[in-house]
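step: validate -> pass
step: tokenize input -> pass
step: predict -> running
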Amino acid sequence: MSRSCQEHAISLLARREHSAFELRQKLSQHAYSDNEIEHVLQLLQEQGLQDDARFASQYWRYRANKGYGALRIKQELQQRGLTNEHIQQAMMEVEIDWFVLAVNVRCKRFGNKAPSDLKERAKQQRFLQYRGFTFDEIKESFNNNP
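step: predict -> pass
step: emit ->
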């Protein structure tokens, strides 16, 4: 017995928030037509069950709590089909001191003391850059220890 497109979408949303883009992708992998998917997405948005702005805000908080910087989070949200407007609005809603987060992430991974040589410093910089922190945040993370 196959589920309806709407039931499938609600089942996905019951597990976690999804962007409209993600839902569209997941539903299109099944035998649902594009028209049916668009209709279901519109219904879910009208009912408040799917909201890209809410998804963006929750995603910012979740990833920042996992130790990722704004650059990485922004890129991930773009990959999930969110508009720059939703991304910027969500970024302004979350109150995160990215400099403090960069220090905490570096110290959690490498310890509180400063790197002993340039090779070690470069390794730590690459790690923080991969995590999505800006050059200024990375540079400041070496000047401050918790």
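step: describe -> The two ends are 57 Å apart (CA to CA).
step: cleanup -> pass
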